[in-house]
Amino acid sequence: MPDQTKNPVMWSSDQIYYRQAKFIAAAADAMPEDKYGFQPTPAQLTFGAAIRHLAGSNGNICGSISGMPAPAATKVAETATKDELVAALKASFEFCDAAMAGATDAKLGDQITWRGGKAPRARAVIELVADLEDHYSQLAGYMRLNDILPPSATPKK
Questions:
Q1: With contact defined as beta carbons under 8 Å apart, do 73 and 91 qualify?
Q2: What is the pLDDT of residues 115-150, one digit of tens each?
Q3: If 0-12 CB within 10 Å is exposed, 13-18 middle and 19+ buried, where does residue 139 land?
Q4: CA–CA dist 146, 157 (Å, integer)
Q5: N or C end of the chain, less CB within 10 A?
Q6: The pTM is what?
Q7: d(CA 126, CA 123)
Q8: How far is CA 61 from CA 114, 121, 128, 132, 157, in A?
Q9: How much is the pLDDT for 2?
């Protein structure tokens, strides 16, 4: 974890990243396999498709942050089982952990390849934490619709 006085932007980003990564991984574990096909409406992703998207998206975004290609383990077939999806998600978070650990405030202005163009590394860091916040909200809603308490709402022990 970066020093909050020397790297306040990355320290703040890490706070959000690690919280959301923990909640998303716990949500993926907690949702029963038979609910991975649940989608509130036909226009929305299934729970499993959202996990698949997150694994791939994390790999791509963190690849931009680190300058390294995403590991193959972050990509899974549309027909993947819950175990395969959870493994890919966790592999994506391991990759992102390393990417975030290597990022400093001083590197945030460096130009990276971003969606076919160039952008500052800060763009990818902001995209990562925003995407995780967005998708955790989605997953938590899906869980509540199935009478499952999301990890962020679980009482502290």
A1: yes
A2: 889 999 999 999 999 999 999 999 999 999 999 999
A3: buried
A4: 23
A5: C
A6: 0.94
A7: 5
A8: 9, 10, 6, 11, 34
A9: 60
Say how far apart CA 24 and CA 42 lie, in whole Å: 23
**Residue entry with tokens 């974890």:** 1
pLDDT tens, 64-78?
A: 999 999 999 999 999
Percent of the chain exceeding pLDDT 90 equals 90
Distance between CA 62 and CA 69 in Å, rounded?
A: 9
CA pair distance 76, 74, nearest whole angstrom: 7
Do 123 and 114 contact (CB within 8 A), yes or no?
Answer: yes
Q: Which residue has the tokens 């290597």?
A: 102
**pLDDT score for 1:** 57
Q: Are 46 and 39 in contact (CB under 8 A)?
A: yes
Residue with structure tokens 């020397």?
6
CA 156 to chain centroid: 23
